[in-house]
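Re: Re: ligand-bound prediction request (bumping)

Still looking for help on this. To restate: I need the protein modeled with MTE bound, output as structure tokens. Inputs repeated here so nobody has to scroll up.
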Amino acid sequence: MSAISRRKFVTAGIAATAGLSGIAAAAGLARHYGLAPPDCSGIYGPGETLTYAAHRLLAGNSPAREFPRSMISKEPFANELAPLGDDFKRLQSGGFSDWRIFVDGMVAHPAALSLSDLKGLPVRSQITEVVCEEGWSYIAEWIGTPLSEVLKACALLPQARYIVYYSIQREWWESVDMADALHPQTLLTYAMNNGDLPVGFGGPLRLRVPRQLGYKNVKFITRLTATDSLKKFGKGLGSSAPEGGYAWYAGI
Ligand SMILES: Nc1nc2c(c(=O)[nH]1)N[C@H]1C(S)=C(S)[C@@H](COP(=O)(O)O)O[C@H]1N2
Ligand SMILES: [Mo]
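Reply:
Sorry for the wait, this slipped through. Here it is.
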């Protein structure tokens, strides 16, 4: 079967099962096709599984909406942050020249990259919206390195299925599947609008995943880990979000 007809076949099967015998059975079928998110167990599991499977089957690799420059928000809203620790402040006082992003796990060439290393890789920009689950949003221009370029530079191994990413704020860590990790709009951003990325917006380095809600867009990125399974990370639900009651997959 071609990729397209397989996709149609699987989608039709999942939709028919959802209609006939409820979402739990449809989620079971989605799981069978490898379309279950890491937080698929528990009471919201079947719903989370259907959301994720439907997005991956129907939306595929479609881009998040991009906006004209005239729509950039005049007063972008920086969400409240927990106070930053001494380790952050020390790096900040050095102009972030000692900031490193460690890339490890399923890569042939693990690396510790500085901001200038990242700036030496291809640059991309996009004007996209940050959407918080609490109901507000703003539009900004985001400038940085495609995550795919960093993974290519570190020789990502083909068996990797997820990229886990960590903030210097230890309670914030997230992960995305390869469809989002390698998506052209997924950027490690170091600049915003007309200047360096401000600390309030996640500077010096933030992952922008515009196809997912605000909370997946982690600020102050210090580490990326490529893995084929999320079971051994935290409570095994894929990221800090489901540990706090939010969905691992937050597609918009
Ligand atoms: N490290 C870190 N990343 C974070 C957060 C945070 O508190 N710390 N908040 C998240 C949430 S809930 C949202 S909605 C967005 C807010 O982005 P903004 O401050 O640019 O509006 O950042 C996300 N990334
Ligand atoms: Mo949020």
